[in-house]
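Run: sequence + sodium ion -> complex structure.
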Amino acid sequence: MKLLEDRILTDGVVLGEDVLKVDNFLNHQIDPVLMQEIGNEFARIFKGRGINKIITIESSGIAPAVFAGLKMEVPVIFARKHKSLTLTDNLYSASVYSFTKNVTNEIAVSKNFLDASDNVLLIDDFLANGQAAIGLIDICKQAGAKVSGMGIVIEKSFQKGRQIVEESGVDIASLARIEAFVDGKVTFVKEEEA
Ligand code: G4P
Ligand code: NA
Ligand code: NA
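>> structure
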């Protein structure tokens, strides 16, 4: 998505070897005009698959997911994050280990909002090592829900998340695919490889 790639080039800041800071439009301050374009693009890509629900994870997945939900006219659920869960009654939950932050969070979705009749689109802001994605897929599996796709705003294609999600059989569409950070500059996966 050209608009998003341009914004990453203008406002993204590369931190160290493998982190892209996008605090001024996605992870802290949010640009609603850009988020709406992103939501519309997800709606276009995943049209016609019978999706009746979107699931994301708090916090940064919520903005793009809500705009996709607005266009697709379906509800949006955000999985909640906790350090650990004691009361798991009436919840689907999964453990998500973050390589970036070296911490494990439990993510959970209430059984009130997801069941075997659902056909789900998963959305997240970043795809890095794929652990959050796998956790969401696992939660849908527990519910017996169908997963019809995963929409990612920014994929770091040099990390292993995409491969892990593809191995689980879920179709991914990433709106920006970062190939590498070269001397602090972002390069994207070329169209023909994408
Ligand atoms: P994984 O789920 O793909 O395995 O990702 P990882 O553990 O590496 O990432 C943990 C957190 O860091 C996630 O956000 C993820 O979205 C974010 N993240 C990973 N790589 C980058 C990056 O290059 N830039 C930015 N800005 N974020 C990155 P989170 O902790 O769940 O936080 P939230 O922002 O959604 O609240
Ligand atoms: Na994040
Ligand atoms: Na996220």
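>> summary
Residues 19-22, 27, 57, 59-61, 98-101, 125-132, 156, 161 surround guanosine-5',3'-tetraphosphate (ligand 1) (CB under 6 Å). Strands lie at 13-15, 19-21, 53-57, 76-82, 91-98, 103-110, 119-127, 146-156, 172-182, 185-188.
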